[in-house]
Amino acid sequence: MSVSCAGIGEVRAPLLQGLWECVRAGQEDILLSPYLPALYGFVIHLLLCAPFLVLDTLGRVCQRVRSWRITAGSGPPPPLRRWVGCFWKVLYQYLTTIVPATALFQRVRSPVMPELAPSCWQFFVEVFACLLLFDMLFFIWHICMHRFPWLYRNIHQLHHRHHIPFALAAQDSNSGELLSLLLLALSSAWVLGCHPLSEAFFHLINSWLAVEAHCGYDLPLALHRLLPCLGGAPYHQAHHTLLSVNYAPYFTHWDLLFGTFRAPVKRSQ
Ligand SMILES: [Zn+2]
Ligand SMILES: [Zn+2]
């Protein structure tokens, strides 16, 4: 496979180009479908939650798994009926609000499918820039939700009924909340002019970080243990418990800057 070089940082990785050609092959109609963002968001959310459903099931019989639960009274893993109830609620929000609203947004946005994949550098910069931008927008949105009582009562409070969240509950919210966060994520990629491959990867990482933040476990190989700039599940669980701290979704710098950071309680081994 050929590698085109247009200068330093413009090396097109054969892997990315091959992946992009594979994704595009005969799939243009699907890739340009206005329903794709909602479908992709829903399906990857379910798939990324699956390992935590296994973990929650194992946690009912395995002490080792329970020892990874976050301290400060996180309690036993949620039973299967909570997962099932949550699944139907999220599905209902998608069918009634998210699918039609994001389809409308996609029609306005009219995405295009370029021939070439992004270069490695472009891919990395776009994904990282999307994460930084979305992190900032979410932080502002989240502060507003907590500082304005009307917004909290009518939109955000529903998500906070989970004092001790679990993976699937990352999307268990009021339809207005779910929609606004999905539109913020789509807009972040749109404003930055991302390549569709970078955007798809950003949404994948975004979903994973949201699922991990709500999973209820402080796992030995969790991302926040490898990358200290990330808050992770203990950080977000502190938000669900205390409400007035740790507003950012991934990184901790905005909370540190605005004095709303609260260090999570360390898991006892
Ligand atoms: Zn949450
Ligand atoms: Zn909140």
From TrEMBL:
Residues 128-260 form the Fatty acid hydroxylase domain. InterPro entries: Fatty_acid_hydroxylase, Sterol_Desaturase_Related. GO terms for molecular function: iron ion binding; oxidoreductase activity. This is Fatty acid hydroxylase domain-containing protein. It is found in: Membrane. The chain crosses the membrane at residues 38-62, 83-103, 123-144. Its main location: membrane. The lineage of its organism: Eukaryota, Metazoa, Chordata, Craniata, Vertebrata. The keyword Transcription does not apply. GO terms for cellular component: membrane. It comes from Sander lucioperca. The keyword Transmembrane helix applies. Keywords: Membrane, Transmembrane, Transmembrane helix. GO terms for biological process: lipid biosynthetic process.
